[in-house]
Design goal:
This protein has about 425 residues and is of the alpha+beta class. It contains 14 helices and 21 strands.
Protein backbone atom coordinates (compact mmCIF):
# COMPACT_ATOMS: atom_id res chain seq x y z
CA UNK A 1 0.00 0.00 0.00
CA UNK A 2 2.88 2.38 0.72
CA UNK A 3 4.10 2.29 -2.89
CA UNK A 4 0.53 2.74 -4.19
CA UNK A 5 0.07 5.67 -1.83
CA UNK A 6 3.30 7.31 -2.98
CA UNK A 7 2.39 6.74 -6.63
CA UNK A 8 -0.99 8.35 -5.98
CA UNK A 9 0.68 11.39 -4.40
CA UNK A 10 3.10 11.68 -7.34
CA UNK A 11 0.33 11.39 -9.93
CA UNK A 12 -2.69 13.14 -8.41
CA UNK A 13 -1.44 15.22 -5.45
CA UNK A 14 2.17 16.25 -6.18
CA UNK A 15 1.69 19.66 -4.54
CA UNK A 16 1.58 17.94 -1.14
CA UNK A 17 5.28 17.07 -1.35
CA UNK A 18 6.38 20.68 -0.91
CA UNK A 19 3.55 21.78 1.39
CA UNK A 20 3.17 22.23 5.14
CA UNK A 21 0.43 19.78 6.13
CA UNK A 22 -1.92 19.43 9.09
CA UNK A 23 -3.26 15.90 9.54
CA UNK A 24 -6.55 15.41 11.37
CA UNK A 25 -6.08 12.41 13.65
CA UNK A 26 -8.70 10.82 15.86
CA UNK A 27 -6.57 7.92 17.01
CA UNK A 28 -8.60 5.46 14.96
CA UNK A 29 -7.08 3.10 12.43
CA UNK A 30 -7.74 5.26 9.35
CA UNK A 31 -6.01 8.41 10.58
CA UNK A 32 -3.16 6.45 12.22
CA UNK A 33 -2.46 4.68 8.94
CA UNK A 34 -2.58 7.99 7.04
CA UNK A 35 -0.10 9.52 9.50
CA UNK A 36 2.24 6.55 9.13
CA UNK A 37 2.04 6.64 5.32
CA UNK A 38 2.82 10.36 5.31
CA UNK A 39 5.71 9.82 7.71
CA UNK A 40 7.15 7.04 5.54
CA UNK A 41 6.73 9.25 2.48
CA UNK A 42 8.62 12.09 4.20
CA UNK A 43 5.76 14.56 3.92
CA UNK A 44 5.92 17.60 6.18
CA UNK A 45 3.04 16.95 8.60
CA UNK A 46 1.84 17.90 12.06
CA UNK A 47 -1.06 16.24 13.88
CA UNK A 48 -4.30 17.86 15.05
CA UNK A 49 -6.63 16.06 17.47
CA UNK A 50 -10.10 17.09 18.63
CA UNK A 51 -11.34 15.96 22.04
CA UNK A 52 -15.12 16.35 21.82
CA UNK A 53 -15.63 15.21 25.45
CA UNK A 54 -18.55 12.99 24.49
CA UNK A 55 -17.30 9.60 25.73
CA UNK A 56 -15.86 10.46 29.15
CA UNK A 57 -12.68 8.45 29.81
CA UNK A 58 -12.62 7.11 26.25
CA UNK A 59 -12.27 10.63 24.86
CA UNK A 60 -9.41 11.37 27.23
CA UNK A 61 -7.85 8.03 26.32
CA UNK A 62 -7.92 8.98 22.63
CA UNK A 63 -6.18 12.25 23.46
CA UNK A 64 -3.50 10.48 25.52
CA UNK A 65 -2.96 7.98 22.72
CA UNK A 66 -2.42 10.72 20.11
CA UNK A 67 -0.01 12.56 22.39
CA UNK A 68 2.01 9.38 22.92
CA UNK A 69 1.96 8.60 19.19
CA UNK A 70 3.27 12.08 18.37
CA UNK A 71 6.07 11.62 20.90
CA UNK A 72 6.97 8.15 19.58
CA UNK A 73 7.05 9.37 15.98
CA UNK A 74 8.65 12.73 16.86
CA UNK A 75 5.82 14.76 15.37
CA UNK A 76 4.31 18.13 16.31
CA UNK A 77 0.77 17.80 17.67
CA UNK A 78 -2.08 20.21 18.43
CA UNK A 79 -4.93 19.30 20.80
CA UNK A 80 -8.23 21.13 21.23
CA UNK A 81 -10.97 20.32 23.75
CA UNK A 82 -14.60 21.14 22.92
CA UNK A 83 -17.83 21.28 24.90
CA UNK A 84 -19.67 19.68 22.00
CA UNK A 85 -22.95 19.13 23.84
CA UNK A 86 -23.15 22.81 24.81
CA UNK A 87 -22.39 23.88 21.25
CA UNK A 88 -25.10 21.57 19.93
CA UNK A 89 -27.61 23.03 22.40
CA UNK A 90 -26.64 26.63 21.66
CA UNK A 91 -26.79 26.31 17.89
CA UNK A 92 -29.55 23.68 17.68
CA UNK A 93 -27.35 21.10 15.95
CA UNK A 94 -27.22 17.35 16.18
CA UNK A 95 -24.18 16.04 18.04
CA UNK A 96 -22.66 14.77 14.79
CA UNK A 97 -23.18 18.10 13.02
CA UNK A 98 -21.87 20.04 16.02
CA UNK A 99 -18.69 17.94 16.12
CA UNK A 100 -18.23 18.39 12.38
CA UNK A 101 -18.57 22.18 12.55
CA UNK A 102 -16.28 22.45 15.56
CA UNK A 103 -13.48 20.40 14.08
CA UNK A 104 -13.53 21.91 10.60
CA UNK A 105 -13.70 25.46 11.96
CA UNK A 106 -10.74 24.69 14.21
CA UNK A 107 -8.72 23.13 11.40
CA UNK A 108 -9.22 26.24 9.26
CA UNK A 109 -8.33 28.56 12.14
CA UNK A 110 -5.26 26.53 13.06
CA UNK A 111 -4.14 26.41 9.45
CA UNK A 112 -4.37 30.18 9.14
CA UNK A 113 -2.60 30.84 12.44
CA UNK A 114 0.25 28.37 11.94
CA UNK A 115 0.75 28.67 8.21
CA UNK A 116 -0.40 25.20 7.12
CA UNK A 117 -1.11 24.89 3.43
CA UNK A 118 -3.52 21.94 3.55
CA UNK A 119 -5.46 19.78 5.99
CA UNK A 120 -5.39 16.01 5.39
CA UNK A 121 -8.30 13.81 6.47
CA UNK A 122 -8.43 10.01 6.36
CA UNK A 123 -11.64 9.42 4.38
CA UNK A 124 -11.32 6.29 2.25
CA UNK A 125 -13.22 4.39 -0.46
CA UNK A 126 -15.66 2.73 1.95
CA UNK A 127 -16.47 6.11 3.53
CA UNK A 128 -17.18 7.39 0.04
CA UNK A 129 -19.60 4.54 -0.67
CA UNK A 130 -21.35 5.05 2.68
CA UNK A 131 -21.78 8.78 1.97
CA UNK A 132 -23.21 7.98 -1.47
CA UNK A 133 -25.75 5.57 0.03
CA UNK A 134 -26.71 8.00 2.81
CA UNK A 135 -27.42 10.74 0.28
CA UNK A 136 -29.23 8.28 -1.97
CA UNK A 137 -31.54 7.04 0.80
CA UNK A 138 -32.35 10.58 1.98
CA UNK A 139 -32.99 11.92 -1.52
CA UNK A 140 -30.55 14.18 -3.34
CA UNK A 141 -29.59 15.72 -6.62
CA UNK A 142 -26.76 14.71 -8.91
CA UNK A 143 -24.16 16.47 -6.80
CA UNK A 144 -25.10 14.40 -3.77
CA UNK A 145 -24.21 11.26 -5.73
CA UNK A 146 -20.74 12.38 -6.81
CA UNK A 147 -19.06 11.25 -3.60
CA UNK A 148 -16.58 12.90 -1.28
CA UNK A 149 -14.26 15.27 -3.20
CA UNK A 150 -10.59 14.36 -2.99
CA UNK A 151 -9.67 18.05 -3.10
CA UNK A 152 -12.02 20.55 -1.49
CA UNK A 153 -10.27 23.85 -0.96
CA UNK A 154 -7.58 23.33 1.66
CA UNK A 155 -8.96 19.90 2.64
CA UNK A 156 -7.31 16.92 0.95
CA UNK A 157 -8.30 13.25 1.25
CA UNK A 158 -5.39 11.17 -0.06
CA UNK A 159 -6.84 7.81 1.09
CA UNK A 160 -9.97 7.96 -1.08
CA UNK A 161 -8.63 5.39 -3.59
CA UNK A 162 -7.98 2.85 -0.80
CA UNK A 163 -10.43 0.46 0.83
CA UNK A 164 -10.94 -0.21 4.51
CA UNK A 165 -9.55 -3.73 3.94
CA UNK A 166 -6.32 -2.30 2.51
CA UNK A 167 -5.98 0.07 5.46
CA UNK A 168 -6.52 -2.71 7.99
CA UNK A 169 -3.99 -4.92 6.22
CA UNK A 170 -1.39 -2.14 6.21
CA UNK A 171 -1.93 -1.46 9.91
CA UNK A 172 -1.43 -5.13 10.80
CA UNK A 173 1.58 -5.57 8.52
CA UNK A 174 3.29 -2.58 10.14
CA UNK A 175 2.18 -3.54 13.66
CA UNK A 176 0.48 -0.20 14.22
CA UNK A 177 -1.63 0.49 17.28
CA UNK A 178 -4.87 2.47 17.20
CA UNK A 179 -7.94 3.25 19.27
CA UNK A 180 -11.30 1.58 18.71
CA UNK A 181 -14.36 3.82 19.01
CA UNK A 182 -17.12 1.69 20.56
CA UNK A 183 -19.79 3.85 18.89
CA UNK A 184 -18.64 2.58 15.48
CA UNK A 185 -20.17 -0.82 16.27
CA UNK A 186 -23.55 0.65 17.20
CA UNK A 187 -26.46 0.33 14.75
CA UNK A 188 -27.89 3.57 16.14
CA UNK A 189 -26.54 5.70 13.31
CA UNK A 190 -27.50 5.29 9.65
CA UNK A 191 -23.87 5.17 8.54
CA UNK A 192 -23.17 2.24 10.85
CA UNK A 193 -26.27 0.38 9.68
CA UNK A 194 -25.11 0.72 6.10
CA UNK A 195 -21.54 -0.25 7.04
CA UNK A 196 -22.43 -3.38 9.01
CA UNK A 197 -25.66 -4.58 7.38
CA UNK A 198 -26.13 -3.26 3.83
CA UNK A 199 -22.67 -2.92 2.31
CA UNK A 200 -21.53 -6.47 3.22
CA UNK A 201 -24.51 -7.80 1.26
CA UNK A 202 -23.66 -5.58 -1.72
CA UNK A 203 -20.06 -6.78 -1.62
CA UNK A 204 -21.28 -10.37 -1.49
CA UNK A 205 -23.33 -9.73 -4.63
CA UNK A 206 -20.44 -7.94 -6.32
CA UNK A 207 -16.97 -8.59 -4.87
CA UNK A 208 -15.65 -5.75 -7.07
CA UNK A 209 -18.20 -3.31 -5.66
CA UNK A 210 -15.71 -0.57 -4.76
CA UNK A 211 -14.10 -0.62 -8.20
CA UNK A 212 -17.53 -0.52 -9.91
CA UNK A 213 -18.60 2.25 -7.57
CA UNK A 214 -15.51 4.33 -8.38
CA UNK A 215 -16.24 4.01 -12.09
CA UNK A 216 -19.80 5.20 -11.48
CA UNK A 217 -18.58 8.10 -9.36
CA UNK A 218 -16.21 9.19 -12.13
CA UNK A 219 -19.08 9.20 -14.64
CA UNK A 220 -21.34 11.15 -12.31
CA UNK A 221 -18.62 13.70 -11.59
CA UNK A 222 -18.17 14.31 -15.31
CA UNK A 223 -21.93 14.80 -15.66
CA UNK A 224 -21.93 17.19 -12.71
CA UNK A 225 -19.19 19.23 -14.37
CA UNK A 226 -21.46 19.71 -17.40
CA UNK A 227 -24.34 20.77 -15.11
CA UNK A 228 -22.10 23.21 -13.22
CA UNK A 229 -20.97 24.83 -16.45
CA UNK A 230 -24.57 25.24 -17.61
CA UNK A 231 -25.69 26.69 -14.26
CA UNK A 232 -22.78 29.16 -14.18
CA UNK A 233 -23.73 30.38 -17.65
CA UNK A 234 -27.34 30.68 -16.50
CA UNK A 235 -26.39 32.71 -13.40
CA UNK A 236 -24.53 35.25 -15.51
CA UNK A 237 -27.92 36.14 -17.00
CA UNK A 238 -30.22 35.49 -14.04
CA UNK A 239 -28.34 37.00 -11.10
CA UNK A 240 -29.08 40.70 -10.76
CA UNK A 241 -26.88 43.14 -8.90
CA UNK A 242 -27.03 42.06 -5.21
CA UNK A 243 -27.34 44.48 -2.33
CA UNK A 244 -26.37 44.20 1.32
CA UNK A 245 -29.59 42.43 2.30
CA UNK A 246 -30.28 39.89 -0.44
CA UNK A 247 -29.42 38.39 -3.81
CA UNK A 248 -31.83 39.00 -6.71
CA UNK A 249 -32.64 36.47 -9.42
CA UNK A 250 -34.61 37.34 -12.55
CA UNK A 251 -37.74 35.22 -12.77
CA UNK A 252 -37.86 35.67 -16.55
CA UNK A 253 -34.57 33.76 -16.95
CA UNK A 254 -35.95 30.73 -15.10
CA UNK A 255 -39.09 30.79 -17.25
CA UNK A 256 -37.04 30.72 -20.43
CA UNK A 257 -35.80 27.23 -19.57
CA UNK A 258 -37.58 24.04 -20.58
CA UNK A 259 -37.17 22.76 -17.01
CA UNK A 260 -37.11 25.77 -14.67
CA UNK A 261 -37.58 23.54 -11.62
CA UNK A 262 -34.23 21.84 -12.31
CA UNK A 263 -32.49 25.21 -12.50
CA UNK A 264 -34.18 26.36 -9.29
CA UNK A 265 -32.84 23.25 -7.58
CA UNK A 266 -29.30 23.75 -8.86
CA UNK A 267 -29.22 27.43 -7.91
CA UNK A 268 -30.75 27.12 -4.43
CA UNK A 269 -29.85 23.56 -3.35
CA UNK A 270 -27.11 24.70 -0.95
CA UNK A 271 -29.48 26.85 1.12
CA UNK A 272 -31.43 24.07 2.82
CA UNK A 273 -34.72 24.27 0.90
CA UNK A 274 -36.68 21.02 0.70
CA UNK A 275 -40.15 21.99 -0.58
CA UNK A 276 -39.16 22.29 -4.23
CA UNK A 277 -42.74 22.43 -5.53
CA UNK A 278 -43.31 25.49 -3.33
CA UNK A 279 -40.09 27.05 -4.65
CA UNK A 280 -41.24 26.36 -8.22
CA UNK A 281 -44.65 27.93 -7.59
CA UNK A 282 -42.98 31.16 -6.46
CA UNK A 283 -42.34 31.92 -10.14
CA UNK A 284 -46.08 32.63 -10.63
CA UNK A 285 -47.01 33.57 -7.07
CA UNK A 286 -48.26 36.92 -5.82
CA UNK A 287 -45.53 39.38 -4.70
CA UNK A 288 -44.65 38.80 -1.06
CA UNK A 289 -45.06 35.00 -1.15
CA UNK A 290 -42.21 33.29 0.73
CA UNK A 291 -40.58 29.88 1.10
CA UNK A 292 -38.34 29.15 4.09
CA UNK A 293 -35.47 26.83 4.96
CA UNK A 294 -33.89 26.73 8.40
CA UNK A 295 -31.59 29.69 7.77
CA UNK A 296 -32.73 31.16 4.43
CA UNK A 297 -35.82 32.38 2.67
CA UNK A 298 -36.92 33.06 -0.89
CA UNK A 299 -39.35 35.90 -1.51
CA UNK A 300 -41.30 36.63 -4.69
CA UNK A 301 -40.93 40.35 -5.46
CA UNK A 302 -42.53 41.36 -8.76
CA UNK A 303 -40.02 40.21 -11.39
CA UNK A 304 -37.44 38.76 -9.00
CA UNK A 305 -36.79 36.04 -6.45
CA UNK A 306 -34.98 37.47 -3.45
CA UNK A 307 -32.72 35.22 -1.38
CA UNK A 308 -31.81 36.39 2.12
CA UNK A 309 -30.44 34.90 5.32
CA UNK A 310 -32.76 34.66 8.30
CA UNK A 311 -31.03 36.50 11.11
CA UNK A 312 -31.91 36.47 14.77
CA UNK A 313 -32.95 40.03 15.54
CA UNK A 314 -31.54 41.02 18.92
CA UNK A 315 -31.45 44.82 18.74
CA UNK A 316 -34.89 46.39 18.11
CA UNK A 317 -34.34 49.89 19.48
CA UNK A 318 -31.30 52.08 20.16
CA UNK A 319 -31.22 55.30 22.20
CA UNK A 320 -28.90 58.18 21.20
CA UNK A 321 -28.00 60.86 23.76
CA UNK A 322 -27.14 64.43 22.86
CA UNK A 323 -23.44 63.97 23.63
CA UNK A 324 -22.90 60.88 21.46
CA UNK A 325 -21.05 61.40 18.20
CA UNK A 326 -20.77 57.77 17.05
CA UNK A 327 -23.40 55.05 17.40
CA UNK A 328 -22.85 51.43 16.40
CA UNK A 329 -25.95 49.94 14.77
CA UNK A 330 -26.87 46.62 13.07
CA UNK A 331 -26.65 48.40 9.71
CA UNK A 332 -23.42 50.41 10.15
CA UNK A 333 -22.06 53.29 12.21
CA UNK A 334 -24.05 56.50 12.64
CA UNK A 335 -21.97 59.67 13.10
CA UNK A 336 -23.41 62.89 14.57
CA UNK A 337 -21.45 66.14 14.23
CA UNK A 338 -22.20 69.82 14.92
CA UNK A 339 -21.28 71.81 11.81
CA UNK A 340 -21.35 75.45 10.69
CA UNK A 341 -22.88 74.91 7.27
CA UNK A 342 -24.35 72.36 4.88
CA UNK A 343 -22.00 70.68 2.42
CA UNK A 344 -22.80 67.79 0.09
CA UNK A 345 -25.79 65.63 1.00
CA UNK A 346 -26.50 62.05 -0.08
CA UNK A 347 -28.84 59.22 0.77
CA UNK A 348 -26.54 58.42 3.72
CA UNK A 349 -25.93 62.02 4.91
CA UNK A 350 -28.51 64.53 6.14
CA UNK A 351 -28.43 67.90 7.94
CA UNK A 352 -31.08 68.86 10.49
CA UNK A 353 -31.94 71.73 12.79
CA UNK A 354 -30.58 70.49 16.12
CA UNK A 355 -32.83 72.73 18.21
CA UNK A 356 -35.89 70.99 16.84
CA UNK A 357 -34.69 67.61 18.10
CA UNK A 358 -35.85 66.04 21.35
CA UNK A 359 -33.07 63.97 22.94
CA UNK A 360 -32.51 61.16 23.44
CA UNK A 361 -33.14 60.24 19.82
CA UNK A 362 -34.34 56.74 18.99
CA UNK A 363 -33.37 54.28 16.28
CA UNK A 364 -36.14 51.74 15.62
CA UNK A 365 -37.86 49.62 13.00
CA UNK A 366 -41.07 50.88 11.29
CA UNK A 367 -44.40 50.26 13.00
CA UNK A 368 -47.95 50.04 11.71
CA UNK A 369 -49.41 53.51 11.26
CA UNK A 370 -46.10 55.40 10.99
CA UNK A 371 -46.32 58.69 9.08
CA UNK A 372 -43.72 61.25 8.13
CA UNK A 373 -43.35 64.45 6.09
CA UNK A 374 -41.01 63.59 3.19
CA UNK A 375 -38.50 66.34 2.44
CA UNK A 376 -39.42 68.08 -0.80
CA UNK A 377 -43.11 67.22 -0.57
CA UNK A 378 -46.11 69.01 0.88
CA UNK A 379 -47.91 67.33 3.72
CA UNK A 380 -47.56 63.98 5.40
CA UNK A 381 -47.49 60.48 4.03
CA UNK A 382 -48.01 57.05 5.50
CA UNK A 383 -44.72 55.19 5.65
CA UNK A 384 -46.38 52.11 4.14
CA UNK A 385 -47.57 54.23 1.17
CA UNK A 386 -44.07 55.68 0.77
CA UNK A 387 -42.60 52.16 0.69
CA UNK A 388 -45.14 51.13 -1.94
CA UNK A 389 -44.48 54.18 -4.10
CA UNK A 390 -40.74 53.58 -3.89
CA UNK A 391 -41.36 49.93 -4.89
CA UNK A 392 -39.42 48.58 -1.94
CA UNK A 393 -39.34 44.82 -1.64
CA UNK A 394 -40.50 43.03 1.50
CA UNK A 395 -36.87 42.55 2.52
CA UNK A 396 -36.05 46.23 1.91
CA UNK A 397 -38.93 47.21 4.18
CA UNK A 398 -37.83 44.80 6.90
CA UNK A 399 -34.27 46.15 6.79
CA UNK A 400 -35.31 49.81 6.98
CA UNK A 401 -34.58 51.72 10.19
CA UNK A 402 -35.97 55.04 11.40
CA UNK A 403 -34.28 57.85 13.34
CA UNK A 404 -36.91 59.41 15.57
CA UNK A 405 -37.25 62.44 17.82
CA UNK A 406 -39.94 61.58 20.31
CA UNK A 407 -42.74 60.15 18.18
CA UNK A 408 -41.68 62.06 15.04
CA UNK A 409 -39.60 60.47 12.29
CA UNK A 410 -36.47 62.50 11.55
CA UNK A 411 -35.04 60.24 8.85
CA UNK A 412 -36.03 57.10 7.01
CA UNK A 413 -32.38 56.09 7.12
CA UNK A 414 -30.66 55.81 3.79
CA UNK A 415 -33.82 56.92 1.96
CA UNK A 416 -35.56 60.20 2.90
CA UNK A 417 -35.31 62.82 5.69
CA UNK A 418 -38.36 64.46 7.24
CA UNK A 419 -39.32 67.99 6.19
CA UNK A 420 -40.06 69.12 9.77
CA UNK A 421 -36.40 69.04 10.81
CA UNK A 422 -34.82 70.61 7.72
CA UNK A 423 -32.27 73.39 7.98
CA UNK A 424 -33.69 76.83 7.17
CA UNK A 425 -32.39 80.40 7.18
CA UNK A 426 -33.49 80.62 10.84
CA UNK A 427 -31.46 77.56 11.90
CA UNK A 428 -28.72 78.37 14.40
CA UNK A 429 -27.41 74.89 15.27
CA UNK A 430 -26.84 72.42 12.40
CA UNK A 431 -26.40 68.72 13.11
CA UNK A 432 -24.84 66.53 10.44
CA UNK A 433 -25.93 62.88 10.63
CA UNK A 434 -24.05 60.39 8.48
CA UNK A 435 -24.29 56.64 8.01
CA UNK A 436 -21.12 54.76 7.19
Amino acid sequence: MLSKFQDHIDYKLPFLKDAKLLLAISGGIDSVVLAHLCLQSQLNIALAHCNFNLRDKESDGDEDFVLQLAEDWDMEVFIENFDTQQYANDYKRSIQMAARELRYNWFVELGEQMGFDYVLTAHHADDNLETFLINFTRGTGLEGLTGIPEINGEFIRPLLPFSRAEIESYAKDNRLSWREDASNASRKYLRNKLRHEVIPILKEINPSLLQSFQSTINNLQESQAIVDESVNDFLEQALDLPDEHHAKFKISEFKKKNNPKAYLFEVFKDFGFTEWNDVYHLLDAQPGKQVFSERWRLVKDRDFLLLSEIKDEVVTEISITENENKVKTPFGNLFLEDVESISETSKNTIYVDKRLLQFPLTLRKPKEGDVFYPLGMNGKKKLSKYFKDEKLSLLDKENTWLLCSGNAIVWVIGKRPDNRFKVTSDTEDILKIELK
